[in-house]
Amino acid sequence: MPTVLLLGATSDISVAIAKEFGAHGYSLQLAARNTEHLLPIQSDLQIRYNVDCTIHAFDALNYDSHQSFFNSLSVKPDVTVCVFGVMYEEEDAWNDWKLTHRMIDTNYTGAVSILNIVAKYYSAQKKGTIVGISSVAGERGRQSKLIYGSAKAAFSAYLAGLRNKLFKDNVHVVSVKPGFVYTKMTEELPLPKPLTAQPEEVAKAVFKAVEKKKNTIYTKWMWKYIMMIIKNVPEPVFKKMNI
Amino acid sequence: MKKEIANWGNYPVIESDEKSFSYTDELDKLVAQPKSYIARGNGRCYGDASLADNTISTLKYDKVLSFDTEKGLLEVQSGITLDQVLDIIVPKGWFLPVTPGTKYITVGGAIASDVHGKNHHVDGAFSHHVIEMDVLLASGETLTCSPTENTDLFEATCGGMGLTGVIERVIFDLKKIETSFIKQKQVKAENLEEILQLFDTYAHYTYSVAWIDCLKKGKNFGRSILILGEHAKKEDLDDKQKNDPLQLPKKKQITFPFNLPSWVLNTFTVKAFNFLYYGKNFKKEINNVVSYEPFFYPLDAILHWNRGYGKPGFIQYQFVLPLQAKQGLIDILNRISDEGIGSFLAVLKVFGKQESLISFPTEGYTLALDIPVRKGLFEFLDELDQIVLKYGGRLYMSKDARMKPEILKAGYPHLDRFKAIIKKFNPDFKFRSHQSDRLLLTKEKDSKVNGTAVVLPKMEAAVK
């Protein structure tokens, strides 16, 4: 049975993705900083889906540990899903460099650090799939997602570049760009129901994208068209908008 | 963020700040906030029991911690719903020890309401199968309780509507099954006398419940269909079913798309429905083998069926009367058919004996009916309450949205002890709901505790 590695495995979206792969018989490797939180998720996945599930300590911001983390996996995953990320209030981040820095480091630098290691391994093996959970916020810079959006934009660009670089080695890269998702991260936001996905919908879309080797997916699908419009607003107009 | 929430009856609708948590330490932090809360599962109680200005949703706290497939013991976090539990246990040859008429409730909710099923007379209520559980108290401490450990906390948490604290981890026992099918028998009864007789005749059946026509008068007063069942053995199955005796039912559901206008439900349409429902069983007795899904959860096939009662919502009125109070049942059915407010689904069941502090089930006849909210309904239900009291009965808090505190007091003999235990574990009423305030469980009469007074939404506003 194939194995999937989830980086940032305590989030709502990751739990949903783990369940989706577990339901399809994949062995699961859950990696997160808080391994205490992973224990109930581990037992849950093992019992629900009768699959192997291991837990691993992983800190996205401790770049120096990433190589040894990956080396320590006794079974190397066939699919690696990079889910971790943070979103602080932009206003707080604007006023506090530490928050800004942390948002960039987690959403971009940490992701690049670990995925470079995974990508090199997959290149050598001439197989493997990398999934990066980015965001529609990275499609165009705007004031309400100033730092988060720019970090995700960088991550999206990295994923696209990686896909291009690894194509010749038979390694596939999926960029996932969720719009609004009902998670603890967004609990305090008044989200429009028709545009907001459940984590389970994102998980189903991710699994399908891996199976069908899709390049970029949006969840929900209409975000693709919404972002198409937003990307096409001329800058002289866009810069005046309160968006 | 405040948002509008309601439970299954869609009455009342309130604004609440709902927070969720996935991990035990996140719950600890939430409860440490200087606010009052009530824990809320899937919102399938009918009235205002899990409604409060601040609610804690347990739905993300839904992990399975262990499953002993030899002994049939399941250890879960309280937010897991019974439909998920069934998906896990049925293929391994186990079933829920007790299940209500919907599988979309959480394990925490099942305990807080101490739900019952069609097998109450044989297996008791849900709490009877709880081996142990952890409850997070107002003090921030988590206590493990069971029928033998911290027994006061245990008995006040079973059926205690969340007023002792937040249920975290639960171990409960399961029922061994050979197949996932039910050997079903349906028997038609001409009238009330006959259906009560039939309950007696078939008391040895594990599962029994009756659908009753509340609108019929005269010689067919109380005509019913008794529905009986046993878990099928392998030899009961046909060849196709035998291929996979522990199969899960196919997941097919339709969604009730919108609120039905309230005028659609009236005496005429309900009479027509009842005529067809009763008439569909042409024979006196039907025997067949069916999947557990249509047997236990016929209404779960229609998502949001509560929308059929329209925007004003509905009340499910459920009471229990002692066995010797058959006349009370007749009086109430008479009042209902006179008033012409029959409901599609009036369900009659005989409870077995149950000794408990605050749980609803107690030996006797229980009747549950769904009635759309409309002008004059609450006055009428107040009248029915008086009949229930006169015959020594009580109402089910999980269904309640409108009972007066004196009705609760008269119906539950151990109420004072229940209140004393709440006071012990929840001294400042950190855990409180609109219902608990209304019923004066977490509030003194006519006093404002912490500046919050409960105002029931006006009927006029609800009924356009």
TrEMBL record, chain A:
Keywords: Oxidoreductase
Listed InterPro entries: SDR_fam
Listed GO CC annotations: membrane
MF annotations from Gene Ontology: oxidoreductase activity
Stored PANTHER family: DEHYDROGENASE/REDUCTASE SDR FAMILY MEMBER 7B, SHORT CHAIN DEHYDROGENASE FAMILY PROTEIN
Family: Belongs to the short-chain dehydrogenases/reductases (SDR) family.
Protein name stated in the entry: SDR family oxidoreductase
Organism expressing this protein natively: Pinibacter aurantiacus
Automatic annotation (TrEMBL), chain B:
Residue span(s) of domain FAD-binding PCMH-type: 6-177
Molecular-function annotations in GO: FAD binding; oxidoreductase activity, acting on the CH-OH group of donors, oxygen as acceptor
Matching PANTHER family: D-ARABINONO-1,4-LACTONE OXIDASE, L-GULONOLACTONE OXIDASE
Name assigned to this protein: FAD-binding oxidoreductase
